[in-house]
Each structure stands twice: as C-alpha cells, then as structure tokens.
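Glutathione S-transferase family protein, pasting as requested.
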Amino acid sequence: MLSLYDCEFSENCYKVRLFLSILGQEHQLIPVELFPGREHQQAHFRAINPLAKVPVLEDNGLILRDSQAILVYLACKYAPKGKWYPLEEASRIARVQMWLSFANDLNETISSVRRQVQVFGKDENVAPKCKAARELLAVMEEHMWFAEKAGHFWLCAGDHPTVADLACFPHVMLSDEAGISLIDYPALRRWTDRVKGINGFTAMPGIFSLTSS
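Structure tokens follow.
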C-alpha cells in the first residue's frame, strides 16, 4: 500500500492527497507534526527525507520527496496512460513541466506568506513576497483568460486537466489566508471552480468543495 507522510495543513501535502482521492488509489496517511512538534526535524524523519520536508511518498520501498515529483509519479504509474501527464507530445510535456515549476514559485510567495502569518503570527516584511505573488497570479489570470477564449479550460490546452492544475490549485485557493484576494482574478476563480468539480475532489482546511462553499 502507498504511504504518504503528511501534514493536514500543508498545501504541498494536500495536492498529493487530492490526486490520490481523484485516482481512487488506496493509501495510508502517516501524520507528521510540523508545528509545534517539529517532527520533520527529528532523526527518524530525516532518515526518510534528509531535507526534512513533507510530503514524502513510499511505494513498495521506493521513497519520493517533492510534491511535484510525486504527482508525476502517480500520474505515470497509477493513472490511465497520458491522462494526467502527457507521455508523447514534447510541447505538452514541456508546458506541464513549466506549470509545475510555476507551482514552486507560488509556494515560495503565497504559501510562504501564509505560513509566516498563520504559524508565526507575523506579517512584517511580507510586502515583497505579496507583490511577487500578485504578479504570478496576474500571469495565471491572463493565461486562463486567453485559454478560455480559445476554448481551453485548464492550464495546459486539452480536454482534461493535468497534474499542473493540481500542483498550482491549493496555493491559489489559499491566497486569501496570505492576505491576497482573488477578487481581481475572475478567470482564476472560474478555473478553481472547475478543479473543485473534478470527480473525486476532496477538501482541506481552508479549501471547501463546491457543495459546501
């Protein structure tokens, strides 16, 4: 059985839980208390991931760290071939990878501010990251606006979402908790509703399903 070392409040853990739910893939969650317990810094966890970060996925002895890498692995091994991660079209593979990298930028801006405010109760010196986050959201907004005009409704053109959508989704959805409103990004709000409409969608604290929002 798949084992996911997980923190309920982590966006990066959530995107993996979300994909496992969408896939209907059986798995077990192994909670890792980040704060205040700092379990991720303990020797027993560092033996699993020396970088002291969650999520970590274990599959029959294979240990994978980094949420984006885990999404790609799950898509290639447990999803119908090419459905969530393109395997043959070079340009589409590159676009998916581009947005997976973009998710890292969202994590280092939006989610970094969210953690600083919620975990440490401090909001000083976050203005540069908030400015960078709004610039990233503007890039996504423009991209999705033109995509919709062209009849495409996901980050990468096609009739089905990819792991790129799941990778970016939680950071965008939790931007309010970083003090960054989505009110000025209507195309992004429509996109987040489409992600919520994916069969198997599951919620996390701060992210609700369409029926409960």
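Note for the archive: The chain has seven helices and four strands.
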